[in-house]
Amino acid sequence: MYESMTYEVILKRMMDRVPNGLDKREGSLIYTALSAAAAEMQIVYIEFDTILKETFAQTASRENLIRRAAERGLKPTEATRAVLKAVAVPDTVLINKGERFRYGTYYYTVTESMGDGTFQVVCEKAGVEGNHQFGRLIPVQNISGLTSMEITELLIPGEDAIDTEVFRKNYFDSFEKKSYGGNKQDYIEKTNGIAGVGATKVTRAWDGPSTVKLTILDSDCNKASDLLVQTVQNIMDPEETASGDGLSPIDHRVTVVSAEAVLIQISTDLEINENYTLEALKELINKAVEDYLKEIRTSWESMGDYGCIVRISQLESKILSIEGIYDIKNTKINGKPVNLELNPYQIPVIGGVKIDP
């Protein structure tokens, strides 16, 4: 707004107000005094622009956006730590809570025994990085009788702190979407606010009056683990008693389940450029299919009462965009040459790609 208020403009305006009979040449007393004042005034106008920008949520920096959003009871979600399953050999070894292990540059702490030599471990580094580390752990301190300890499964994904632009969108969405006392939006906001939850669908009266079913995905848009489902259940309505002891309103009997993962097996015929081999392209093809299926899973919540559709045309387009693939035909999904329509509580997960060159 004040971009035009430069040092030169301000100085000229000030000099124009000085009577012509006085010495206004550069180096004169008047010029020296006014030029110093003009430089300071330019700084003031720059600060005016900054204040104006930081006043409105649309242009505010993260720090001041948080302050503005706090007026509506909103706050950004912080980064959370991944919870994983680790298996000890032998399964009778005694490992206490608080024991620490290392995998590469990452450290993990044992939080709970799951029985039969399996343990819950928490990555000490918050964020999504902890979701993708699997392998053999090294104990920080010697544990008598332990032969090996290996991370085998992600139970609750860690999440990064919410991105500034996503939080800005949430702020403006709060004016349009009203959450109140157990309405649909209230359930979605509260459930998605639980660490590890990435999407939620709400089904009312699914098992009679005053029953609510929450179908969830984890924050990686995958099927939620049993631990995550139980964690959300305990927070929303412990033991499904409708007692109001959780976040759900009293007399709302809430049941939490995960969306069903449906394996998607793709078969197709490809014509490959003579400069490429199928073996070299397989990894790219699998990634293209997985990326497409993840796009579908990401939009699962916004589909509402409609189910996801895995489209042959989209699959062929993704695969055909890979350099080295000349043509594609006879694509089938789970053995059928038609689009696959899922119900509202199912998500597609890659089950394999069969290619006939």
TrEMBL record:
InterPro entries found in the cross-reference section: Baseplate_J-like_C, Baseplate_J_M, Phage_Baseplate_Assmbl_Protein
Residue ranges annotated for the Baseplate J-like C-terminal domain, each copy included: 264-355
Domain Baseplate J-like central: 179-258
Source species, domain of life: Bacteria
Pfam families for this protein: Baseplate_J_C (PF26079), Baseplate_J_M (PF26078)
Similarity section: Belongs to the Mu gp47/PBSX XkdT family.
Annotated protein name in UniProt: Baseplate J/gp47 family protein
Source organism of the structure: Clostridium boliviensis
